[in-house]
Amino acid sequence: MSPLVTPSNVQRSDRHQNRARMLISCPDRPGIVAAVSQFLSKHGANIVQSDQYTMDPEGGLFFIRLEFDLPELEQQLASLKRDFAETTAREFAMEWRVTQASRKQRLAVFVSKEDHCLLELLWQWKSGDLYADIAMVVSNHPDMRDTVESFGIPYHHVPVTPETKKEAEAKQLELVRDVDTVVLARYMQIISPTFIAQFPNRIINIHHSFLPAFVGGKPYAQAYDRGVKIIGATAHYVTEELDGGPIIEQDVQRVSHRDNVEALKRIGRHIERIVLARAVAWHAEDRILTHQNKTVVFN
Amino acid sequence: MSPLVTPSNVQRSDRHQNRARMLISCPDRPGIVAAVSQFLSKHGANIVQSDQYTMDPEGGLFFIRLEFDLPELEQQLASLKRDFAETTAREFAMEWRVTQASRKQRLAVFVSKEDHCLLELLWQWKSGDLYADIAMVVSNHPDMRDTVESFGIPYHHVPVTPETKKEAEAKQLELVRDVDTVVLARYMQIISPTFIAQFPNRIINIHHSFLPAFVGGKPYAQAYDRGVKIIGATAHYVTEELDGGPIIEQDVQRVSHRDNVEALKRIGRHIERIVLARAVAWHAEDRILTHQNKTVVFN
Amino acid sequence: MSPLVTPSNVQRSDRHQNRARMLISCPDRPGIVAAVSQFLSKHGANIVQSDQYTMDPEGGLFFIRLEFDLPELEQQLASLKRDFAETTAREFAMEWRVTQASRKQRLAVFVSKEDHCLLELLWQWKSGDLYADIAMVVSNHPDMRDTVESFGIPYHHVPVTPETKKEAEAKQLELVRDVDTVVLARYMQIISPTFIAQFPNRIINIHHSFLPAFVGGKPYAQAYDRGVKIIGATAHYVTEELDGGPIIEQDVQRVSHRDNVEALKRIGRHIERIVLARAVAWHAEDRILTHQNKTVVFN
Amino acid sequence: MSPLVTPSNVQRSDRHQNRARMLISCPDRPGIVAAVSQFLSKHGANIVQSDQYTMDPEGGLFFIRLEFDLPELEQQLASLKRDFAETTAREFAMEWRVTQASRKQRLAVFVSKEDHCLLELLWQWKSGDLYADIAMVVSNHPDMRDTVESFGIPYHHVPVTPETKKEAEAKQLELVRDVDTVVLARYMQIISPTFIAQFPNRIINIHHSFLPAFVGGKPYAQAYDRGVKIIGATAHYVTEELDGGPIIEQDVQRVSHRDNVEALKRIGRHIERIVLARAVAWHAEDRILTHQNKTVVFN
User: The ACT domain covers which part of the protein (chains A, B, C, D) (predicted)?
Assistant: First the structure.
């Protein structure tokens, strides 16, 4: 079926052809910023954005995210990366990566029955607010097929039962083998350690509570029982600890005794979809560094 | 030392001489509102404010808070209460109470070394925003004496050590025997079950986290380790379960990786004092009903 | 084209067959609550929710919204209304209305080119969160036809030019003659006094600023120029004064110097759609009373 | 009278002896970051924090705030500044300044009758949260003398009447001649253009509304009349246009129809004092650059 929608072609200045992003982490010591900016300057690059953070100023870790423009980036990038690896990166024992801003990450979105988070991503993608390539939607249910295909996006129904868990996962891993990031948009199946190992800090989940409160199942019912006056949602990278991975973003909304569990779910949906969309956008813009089960988000 | 400050005499309309507050809870059934308003009407009272809430509409509990004006309230109140007890309250198996709005609750504020919550209460009391009588401040340290006495409020230094816990508590209970409500304004000692039993739902504590996350000690350090993007504070009634009692009020503030533990404490202080002050004010205005470890706040 | 989506059939308890809503405003005086609840009680109705508000307690206006259950409401309602009109309403000089909670309001949504507010309404309608009947979408552009029709909702393209304004309006008024409420979901044409007169307090507009700041055109550019640190959106009833009608709901989001006008629009879209959706839902649930260019929202 | 309180000696790492802050603005062009970091590196300085912002990436203005450590800063600073002026600053046509982080700004706080903003500043100063020197409090009323002097801070009562405006201002200017920044903490007198000219972008005012809404007098009454659902406060630099200067910080709080003007004032006070305190702290930490009646806050 021909798509009802096509992504908009927003040409924002921070995504143009010669824009690159560099993320670095290394042991803190004097001279890092000077060394990096000198390196880039020598290679004809102009730094247009820079955010840094030092964890524990008395000798801890240093993180920096730079955006720079380099004429003919496409052709120059490989040699720039080679030079950097052999000089500055080695000298400062850096972990680092450089990506082209114009390159869209390929995302696979996993969904079960609740569609609000998926819809938010689809519409943000369509409007150009989410600068990424939604390569596919994978679901253990068939319900969302028509909607997803109306966006011109492939839909894969992969049923999961306790007996077929392993085969289902194998099928999923095959589907996402060329994907950069997996987004669990209220996908209710547990992701296995095998799967997680293939996508370290590249699986983003939305948990429908304000972590670390109410981990696990039925968080809105848990919130209702505790009588909290504020509920929230949390987007995080998936690790082997259920709902325990590095938190990327959270947001909240006030509630009162008048809100029963159904109302909490209804209010919570709006928070969930906004929080997940922010997290996915920041991840797609290479704004997140992870360290010791926490994130540094340069936004 | 003569006080530097005296409480302001704000005569707000909802605290005048003939204003009363009635709180009722009973099993839900048809006719409650009609019965109560007819009763009050027959006794010459005019209902000026009414808030109700039915927990579980299919046969659950009914809660209502009314404010009414009754000419010559002072003289009429006793007989009105007697009549209500013998008629409507009995008929509907009500738990209820009626208080005079002009009557100020007597509060005892307990504090340790952190003074921000106490100061907020003192200044709100002085400005008339907190309509209550701060009868005394009790502390296990001597630090706040001068400040508290400059407000014209008695200060009692009751040191507490592991060996003297029992005697200290006995002294405290003696001091607060005529007090309506105890406010723990970052008071760091554990309140014993004996003490709690004397003040059921009448001890308000401020816990410096967004419950149920980070119960117990050093919640800001816990929050820092978890890498949350939002911190908060919670005011609750004290029960035997540490930080587990009914939540009265919560609020939050956004933080980022830039905020170390000291910064979290600094940001958190503002939330703590505002949240505690709100909770104490609502309690002083008889706006809170408690049921099944949760509160219904009519505000 | 057969719809991709059908509205869910959420049977929430506050919308069942025997539930009615009553809104009253009248000069404040003793006995109103008693009179109304006695009346309802005599007619066999059970009050399940009650919210009141007195503007200016020293002799001002009294407002109350009640929800009550009446067995066989459908058959009883007409006579109950007749009796109320002749007795209590007359005695207290009340303005009042009673509606059946199960009856869905018929809405017409007007849209121009920005689709986010419309989409939010469509998805909330589909999920059952918005309990109303979206009878049609009217637009001065053809762009949204496919999307709207995929929801099974009629789409009317009514172009508007300076020369054809009058005919266009005549056509619109004809289309909406059986509609309860008109929702302007980022509809960019000015509504004429004639149109407004047909729908007093029944046209809800979303203005993309935090009123009364930045009325009129290009509010995000205005906000950017003023260098505000917070932007917002406002839902209000349309009156003859542009962006001057009674405010129903507002919300805000923090921004910084990093956000240029395009970013402000992007951030603002999320606020606009949530604020409009809340306002429309409250209006559909008969939660809003208007007085002196302000709203009382019983929520 | 000996002070009841003395400021705490918090030695935060970002205020130690060898820490300096550099703020720069200049026309944007390639190489700025490299040039500045090379300069600092050559002079033995280590950049520990860097925030930049380019207004209008296609050839606009560039802003950067750096924090760097330089051994023996006290002795080295003068020559570093001289060198910078003659080389990099000249080359890039920079406007710039460098200050020592350990140096406290001298503040004069002006107050009228409302004391909440002043008290917030005094307590934040006392706790060490506000790293500045409150050199004096100036007021057109005598009311706050005892409180201010209890903090060990000089209090100057300078009455102002229409006839004595000029002399009063002359007296104030004489008092504040050695002061860095004037903070108007709900000071209700208009500041003259003469005064403003002496303190360009160095007078911080708190206006009790969410600008640009409700400029001028009685903003809470204005807000009440407009029926807004959210109120706020704004801290800004004072310019000749009343309430029109560059906005530094704003915050808001939700209100409802239940809140009359007195309630709005009460709720508003908490926002005012927090917003003013944040703005003053950022200013004291040299985090604010101003351009075209807007601020860039590096926080």
Answer: 21-103
Residues of chain A contacting D32 with CB distance shorter than 8 Å? 47
Please state whether beta strands D181-184 and D106-111 pair in parallel, antiparallel, or not at all (unpaired): parallel
The domain boundary, picked from B100, B122, B149, lies at B100
Enter the ipTM. Answer: 0.92
Do D256 and D112 fall within a single domain? yes
Domain-located, residue A92: yes
Cis status of the peptide bond prior to B212, with omega within 30 of 0: yes
C9 within some domain: no
Q: Tens digit of pLDDT per residue, chain A (299 long)? A: 334 443 443 346 667 899 999 999 999 988 898 899 999 999 999 888 899 988 865 668 999 999 999 999 999 999 999 999 999 999 999 999 999 999 999 999 999 999 999 999 999 999 999 999 999 999 999 999 999 999 999 999 999 999 999 999 999 999 999 999 999 999 999 999 999 999 999 999 999 999 999 998 999 999 999 999 999 999 999 999 999 999 999 999 999 999 999 999 999 999 999 999 999 999 999 999 999 899 999 98
List the alpha helices (DSSP H) in chain C.
Answer: 32-42, 73-86, 88-91, 116-127, 145-149, 165-175, 193-198, 219-226, 261-284
Smallest Cα distance from D85 to chain A, Å: 19
- The pTM of this model reads 0.93
Count the alpha carbons within 13 Å of A144 in the hemisphere toward its beta carbon: 30
Q: Which residues contact residue D90 at a Cβ distance below 8 angstroms, ignoring those fewer than 6 apart?
A: none
Tell me whether the omega of the peptide bond preceding residue C212 falls within 30 degrees of 0, making it cis: yes
Tell me, yes or no, if A114 comes closer than 8 A to chain B by beta carbon: no
Strands (E), A208-293: 230-237, 247-254, 288-291
Of A31, A47, A54, the CB nearest to D33: A47
- Contacting residues of B for A213, CB less than 8 Å apart: 210-213
Q: Are residues C207 and C287 in the same domain?
A: yes
Residue D56 in contact with partner chain A when CB distance is under 8 A: no
Whether cis (ω within 30° of 0) applies to the bond prior to C142 is no
Record: contact B212-A227, CB cut-off 8 A: no
Contact D257 C295 (CB under 8 A): yes
Which residue is closest to B257 within chain A, CA to CA? A296
Number of domains in chain D: 2
Q: Which residues of D are catalytic?
A: 243
The last residue of a domain, from among D43, D66, D100: D100
Phi, psi of B276 (to 5 degrees): -65, -45
Of B195, B165, B160, B161, the closest CA to residue B179 belongs to B195
CB atoms closer than 10 angstroms to residue D63: 22
Spatial separation of the C-alpha atoms in residues B42 and C16, rounded to whole Å:
34
Q: What are phi and psi of A69, to 5 degrees?
A: -105, 135
Burial classification of residue D79, based on how many CB atoms lie within 10 Å of its CB (0-12 exposed, 13-18 middle, 19 or more buried): exposed
Looking at the structure, do residues B165 and B227 belong to the same domain, yes or no? yes
**Does B94 lie in the same domain as B112?**
no
Packed helices B32-42 and C32-42: angle between N→C axes, nearest 10 degrees: 130
Q: Is residue B9 part of a domain?
A: no
The reply to whether D237 falls in a domain is yes
Looking up residue C268, the CATH number of its domain turns out to be 3.40.50.170
- The residue of chain C with its CA nearest to that of D289 is C257
Q: State the Cα–Cα distance between residues B236 and B295, nearest whole angstrom.
A: 9
Expressed as residue numbers, the domain containing C179 is 105-297
Pairing of strands C61-69, B294-297: unpaired
Closest CA to A57 of D11, B281, C11: D11
